[in-house]
Design goal:
Layout (H helix, E strand, L loop, with lengths): L2 H6 L6 E7 L5 E7 L5 H33 L7 E2 L8 E4 L3 H13 L1 H14 L1 E4 L3 E7 L3 E6 L8 E5 L5
Helix pairs in contact: 3-4
Length: 165
């Protein structure tokens, strides 16, 4: 063995200073052989690894759950369609532009108002009162909603603001 290898390699008979706690909890300076790990230290390291592993496993599970929750298309808050006045159904239009055209025609009165009513009956779907919906987007005129329960589940359209609860 060369001179250099003797200085680099740790030898089992070398002793190093260590500090540890005795049974009463006071710090004790002692000597132990270098290169040997005491069983208590080994158990403590294993316990620490176990805690790290469990922490990482829980963190991974929580993050997977969060990603899955964000991917779902269901809204946490459910809304319902509400009929106004003495009506029993709500008109759901294919889009906001159609809603605005029909409502302007109805407001003009006369023959155009009657044509607006007829157009509403042909274009808009009649949705039952208290139908649960999910709001996709909304603005000052109303909201684009998707029906979440019932026979028309999955159908989307535009509903006026006063008909959303």
């Amino acid at each position: 063995m060369s001179e250099r290898e003797r200085h680099i390699r740790p030898r089992a008979h070398e002793i190093c200073e260590v500090e540890s706690q005795d049974a009463t909890g006071t710090m004790v300076r002692g000597r132990r052989p270098r290169g040997r790990v005491q069983p208590a230290a080994r158990a403590s390291g294993a316990r620490r690894m176990s805690v790290k592993f469990h922490f990482l496993a829980i963190l991974l599970a929580v993050s997977a759950f969060a990603v899955a929750a964000c991917q779902s298309s269901h809204s946490i808050v459910t809304h319902k369609l509400v009929a106004s006045g003495n009506q029993h159904s709500i008109a759901m239009y294919p889009d906001e532009e159609t809603y605005l055209k029909v409502s302007r025609m109805q407001q003009q009165g006369g023959i155009e108002g009657m044509a607006g009513d007829v157009r509403k009956n042909f274009i808009a779907w009649a949705i039952d009162d208290q139908t649960p919906v999910t709001i996709v987007s909304s603005d000052q005129n109303g909201a684009v909603v998707e029906i979440s329960e019932g026979p028309m589940k999955g159908r989307a359209g535009f509903v006026a603001t006063q008909n959303i609860d």
